[in-house]
Amino acid sequence: xxxxxxxxxxxxxxxxxxxxxxxxxxxxxxxxxxxxxxxxxxxxxxxxxxxxxxxxxxxxxxxxxxxxxxxxxxxxxxxxxxxxxxxxxxxxxxxxxxxxxxxxxxxxxxxxxxxxxxxxxxxxxxxxxxxxxxxxxxxxxxxxxxxxxxxxxxxxxxxxxxxxxxxxxxxxxxxxxxxxxxxxxxxxxxxxxxxxxxxxxxxxxxxxxxxxxxxxxxxxxxxxxxxxxxxxxxxxxxxxxxxxxxxxxxxxxxxxxxxxxxxxxxxxxxxxxxxxxxxxxxxxxxxxxxxxxxxxxxxxxxxxxxxxxxxxxxxxxxxxxxxxxxxxxxxxxxxxxxxxxxxxxxxxxxxxxxxxxxxxxxxxxxxxxxxxxxxxxxxxxxxxxxxxxxxxxxxxxxxxxxxxxx
Length: 406
What we know:
The protein is mainly beta. The chain contains 3 helices and 28 strands.
């Protein structure tokens, strides 16, 4: 059954995406207060503090970092830092490091926002100094951000690629790709592939090795990806590949065989698309899971074919609307479930309304994670497009590598 293009990706927020940025540290002028007696006999000359404050965003600058803007001090320690949104007085919380050598905002700054910052410090003799700056962070018009999946700290299936979608068209693909590195503890070679000018996915030649750790280093801070548009993200993301689960749907026999770590867990009856609404062939990756989801045919160009408000145990396989999901409305006048395809292109599993019963759909939902692979074979339809969902596995390695800008 085809369904609306509903996405819960963090940012890809639900992946929610962290936007960060960078600017080289630039010392700003800071007023030094009057010195005091050095405590030595006959010493009454004023001395300035040896502490030197550096605010990373230069006074009066625009295009400042939304992530690495902060304060550092040499030959002394910070005693106080105040940062506010200019014109509003809204405080920006932050913290001074344990050794007093730096101050960092608690959260990333907003793009295109004017800030004021003032800092004071003292040297080892207690002499004080101060510095302040007013600056504006990089604007949305002059920056780009990529939403990505999977998110930091998650555990995913062996088919989950790293996928970036940028909010602007990227003209310098090589510059952007060279500042995103993806590596695996398994030692598998990982290559990026561009789908158009706004999306790049990374994967190895074969599925990730079960149990491996994957690290993605995003260093787009200040990288010019398009004319006068600079990256603002700098972050390291690590996720874990869980057990290997690959399920094969056979449209001829209307069955699905679930294999985990090389052993068959279960073989269950399913219902693929009918003769007019066939199911895609190919390797598809579960990208999202929903306990309950409304499916409305009008959102996928099928007029008033269906509108089901509570489809249980729905797992997305394509962005165009292919799901594997529970089916409680199967026409009892038809042959028993699993004898013929009756859906509008989805893969249906026997279920009950509300999804609370001990059903095949609930079992498969509970035993699946994002990144698990579902392979459909023997359907009269074509193979799913590699960019329709997270389905780049339907492209040969030679084709994949050819789409890299690295």
